[in-house]
Amino acid sequence: MRKKISRILFAVSIMVLLVSCKNTKQKLQEYVVEYNNTAKSFKAENVTLTTARGYINDDKIELRFETNLEQNEPNKVAANASFPELLKEMIHKNQIPKELIEEGVRFDVYFLANDNTVLVKEILDKEAVVVLLKK
């Protein structure tokens, strides 16, 4: 009886171990779903909506930040100054997980004007994150 219980416990523990080991593509999918589920509570200056889209075959996540800003030069200059700070804050809060970036996932991040044109675009990969966090 003890042998049977030991075997069952061993089998269950192996299954738990295998299930808890997720690959990068699974983590990417889970991140996108969780990000979009919590996007309604996201707060940042001028941001009206944020969404994530995952590209599993490309190991890429696209983050979009829609704003109430008009597309003009003063807003572009202001966005170029504030957007990297927002990204650094998100990395520090693990809203953009360094773990995924270290596993090779690239984040294409867009800060959009109120007409959905791009004010600022950043690509976050291993090298870009190191540079961004040093600023």
UniProtKB/TrEMBL annotation:
The protein, known as: Lipoprotein
The organism's place on the tree of life at top rank: Bacteria
Species whose genome carries this gene: Flavobacterium cupriresistens
PROSITE patterns cross-referenced by the UniProt entry: PROKAR_LIPOPROTEIN
